[in-house]
Amino acid sequence: MQGLMMNRPLAVIDLLRYAAEIHSNEEIVSVRTEGDLHRQDYARTFERTAQLAHGLAALGIEPGDRVATLAWNGYRHFELYYAISGMGAVCHTINPRLSAEQMLFILNHAEDRVLFVDLTFVPILEALKDHLPANLRLVVMTDAAHSPESALDLECYEDLIAPHPTEYDWPDLPEETAAGLCYTSGTTGNPKGSLYSHRSTVLHALFIAVTLPRSLHEGARLLPVVPMFHVNSWGMPYAAPIVGASLIMPGGKLDGPSLYDLMESENVTASWGVPTVWLGLRAEIEARGKPPSALDQVVIGGSAAPRSMIAFFETQGVDVCHAWGMTEMSPVGTTGQIPNSDSDVTFEDRVARKSLQGRRIFGVDLKIVDEAGQRLPQDGKAVGELYVRGNAVISGYFNDEAATKAAMDSECWFGTGDVASISPNGYLSIQDRSKDLIKSGGEWISSIDLENIAMSHPDVANCAVIAIAHPKWDERPVLVVVPKEGCEPTLQEFHDLMSEHFAKWQLPDDLVFIDALPLTATGKVSKLTLRRKFADYVLPDVR
Ligand code: AMP
């Protein structure tokens, strides 16, 4: 028997429509690429979003079209999130830190019709000018006065929206309609796209709002350090409007002093980001002797939060929530918080518990399996590959059958590529990574792709690229080479080979020679053994 309830589709635009009506005075404060600070409430944002939807229609955008963004966190980027998906098109956020090769691949793979670009990133496009898809239209996210001279054919954001009415007849879309697209690095080769739906996006916003009330509540002032090109800034632009939290958008100013000043002047109550950015803020707090006055919570995720970092913020009276998730999960999977009822927990216990990756949020199921795919017990001891399923987890990659097949198991769970244990009371502990990727400052580097290029060097008999721990970037790549007899290739020679395909920050930091690479029982290079062998290795810039 079916329930007798209305089947109203979940719609992304309703998050903002609600805020415009119920939390109309809460605001979006943005450090603009033009150099000033800009303020705009949700009511006005909803109006401008309607104008933008008309502007997109005037550009010929139709339901299902992909519209790309290359932008920092700011109100115009926020307006794009809502206008694009609200009219039935798909908002494709592009990571400006990708190599030129990867960026061109995803622009073509997504078949983007229009690309909205922040002033800062115009030079990236100018460098790619002759390779951009022929019919891609470019809109620079500023006003006419700030529009740059460029060899590119750039339209201007404010001119695009200015002539249009502040109301739009937002269509009722089936809730499974695609709303957003975000690519993440593959272990090899090309990036893979996660295609979010209206339903998954709204549900994820509700899930994190329920799970993280200390960050997300009426009157909160939330600073997303994690960029809007990283899995929708972990869902903050969708969750903040419904709870009535203001968003304080830092633009490109992510260094410790800038973040501290912005937090202080805007009374920021909570902030979310990867460990690397918190190092800068930590140094600034140490220099000034106190944390920003209103800061109550930091959410740390994207890489493991170091114990010392958790202890530091907690000592300063700033609550730490350690979160784990993935692009493919919208992204939040687990969060670590200590309930207030546990006030008798000692400081050491608190920090130790928060060093784990936390417990699953509502809407996410976890399982760990052995090599044969058999479920392992959640006893805190068994370690296996982590699989997930849930309402905001991908069912496959966008137009990529091979990657989809490789990622899903026979029960339609998604394989995370993380290796973990789960305690009887549900705490996830990430132990290792089976995917051959290195995460530096929150961004991925494919070790296999680096190895493939290194192998093309005539002096190399065999090689492997492994992650070495780094105090600022979490991990950095190091190239381990078995040279051919009598040969001594240099790091610079490898950089020269790799530069064509990789961004500069993705190149290995160091080169080490070895007589032979350790192998697994099946004859593959054992990265695990290599990582253990180099566990105490100190990178050149840290020595
Ligand atoms: P991304 O899709 O770029 O968000 O990366 C997701 C991956 O980052 C996960 O599969 C993990 O390998 C890693 N990761 C994210 N959060 C954490 C965390 N709190 N601790 C350890 N690894 C993490």
What does it look like?
By secondary structure, this protein is of the alpha/beta class. Among the domains are: 190 residues, Rossmann fold, CATH 3.40.50.12780; 70 residues, Luciferase, Domain 3 (Luciferase, domain 3), CATH 2.30.38; 105 residues, GMP Synthetase, Chain A, domain 3, CATH 3.30.300.30. Helices cover 29% and strands 25% of the residues. It is built from 17 helices and 25 strands. The protein has a nine-stranded mixed sheet, with helices on both faces. Strands 7-6-5-3-4-8-9 form a seven-stranded mixed sheet, with helices on both faces. Helix 12 links the parallel strand 13 and strand 14. Helix 7 packs across helix 9. The model has no long low-confidence stretch (mean pLDDT 96). Adenosine monophosphate binds next to strand 14, strand 19 and strand 20.
List the helices and strands and how they pair.
Layout: H1 12-22, E1 27-31, E2 37-41, H2 42-58, E3 66-70, H3 75-86, E4 90-93, H4 100-110, E5 112-117, H5 122-127, E6 137-140, E7 154-156, H6 157-161, E8 178-184, E9 192-197, H7 198-211, E10 221-224, H8 231-234, H9 236-243, E11 246-249, H10 256-265, E12 270-273, H11 275-288, E13 297-300, H12 307-315, E14 319-325, E15 332-336, H13 347-355, E16 359-360, E17 364-369, E18 384-390, H14 401-407, E19 414-422, E20 428-433, E21 437-440, E22 443-446, H15 447-454, E23 460-470, E24 474-483, H16 491-498, E25 510-513, H17 527-533
Parallel strand pairs: 1-11, 3-4, 3-5, 4-8, 5-6, 6-7, 10-11, 10-12, 12-13, 13-14, 24-25
Antiparallel strand pairs: 1-2, 8-9, 14-15, 15-16, 17-18, 18-19, 19-20, 21-22, 23-24
Helix pairs in contact: 1-2, 1-9, 2-3, 7-9, 10-11, 12-13
This protein binds adenosine monophosphate (AMP).
